[in-house]
Amino acid sequence: MDKPNGLEHDLHTKGVAFAYTAAVDIARLIGLLLLMLVLWTSTGCLECPAAGQPPAGSVIAWGYSILHYVQPTGASFVAVASGDSHALVLNQDGTVVAWGWNPFGQCDVPSGLGGVIAIAAGGDHSLALKQDGTVIEWGDTDVPSGLSGVTAIGAGGSDSLAVKQDGTVVAWDSSSECSVPSGLSGVVAVAAGQAHSLALKRDGTVVAWGNNDDDQCNVPSGLSGVIAVAAGWDHSLALKQDGTVVAWGDNWDGECDVPSGLGGVIAIAAGWDHSLALRQDGTVVAWGWDAFGQCDVPSGLSWVTGIAAGNNYSLALVAPPPLVSPPTFGGCTYLPSKMFQMEVFGRFGQNYALEVSTNLINWSSVRTFTCTNSPTILLDSASGRVQFYRIAQ
CATH number of 58-318: 3.40.50.2300, 2.30.110.10, 2.130.10.30, 3.30.530.20? Predict the structure, then answer.
């Protein structure tokens, strides 16, 4: 539904001011009040990661969040998912880690859960798809008895979705709006918003159903070539084969205003009223409602391999940068200024020393440096002598 202009109130807590329009639907007002309650009773929950490259192998949170860094010892993350105020990560060993708001047990991962290949997080519940095609759920809903042969899952405000091997979709929750359209088949992926659902078909087309007050189910005419879908509170996103993004539905906060020229996208995510895109260069683009900083992507964030969007926060899964071991020279050039220019490739964030020798026996350090995402450029005086260079840790 449309959101008319209304009286704006300033909400202050812990020294942070938030602008909020009074004339919004009751559900959003209740959600905001709950967020404020958590904010009031939590410490440091608005802290964001420091600017620059985050720790390798971690999940980065920004916007309204009590999530922050999560880096269990020895974990190797391969996927991330976000609910209203909780999050999940899937480890390479098939186990799941959950954290965040937990009034309904949505963070209480079942003991011994393993063999997981996909995860999804909804309003107050969590899903895990196992290698054997079964689904495990914890929190505020229960998986239908006997559900098996599942290949993909999705979770929304209160509903859950499962794609079966035969391309059909099973949905369950406490609302009639989750009823799957009769005859729907050929589905390969699903996404669920607050009260609407999306299905991506094998032919690259999209089917939508559920609440349509803001046209979130009005799939643009002729939309094709889609490879991924995402559903927010009341807006929808589609990622096309050419790396572009299409958005439709509620656009009160600009969540459907895809940035001009955005391309090279490999993954998308939709929050309450904001949208995220992961580009093939490992960077993230965000747009839409930004009252809590959920669109303020941390400066220098890169090496991102996965994204997720919650109510008013965003998550990025950051993989360890590629290893270059041992460090190597990419090239050495003699400049007119009687200097040698060297390109050095090494592990991101690793400290090295450039050492020089005239006899390959006695070595002395020229300078120390820290490798970045790009080749490190080093200079040294030629000094008229034959010199040998090496890199030491």
Answer: 2.130.10.30
Distance, in Å, from the CA atom of 199 to the CA atom of 236, rounded to the nearest integer, reads 11
Q: Which of 90, 107, 91 is nearest to 99 (CA)?
A: 107
Q: Say how far apart CA 179 and CA 20 lie, in whole Å.
A: 33
Return the percentage of the chain with pLDDT > 90, whole number: 50
Q: Which two tokens stand for residue 390?
A: 């090496």
Starting at the earlier edge strand, list the strands of the sheet with 265-270.
265-270, 274-279, 284-288
Give burial (CB, 10 Å; 0-12/13-18/19+) of 271: buried
Task: Determine the pLDDT at residue 331.
Answer: 73
For the chain, give every domain's residue range: 8-41, 58-318, 328-392
Q: Which secondary structure element, helix H or strand E, spans residue 35, and what is its range? A: helix 26-41
How far is Cα 122 from Cα 95, in angstroms, rounded to an integer? 19
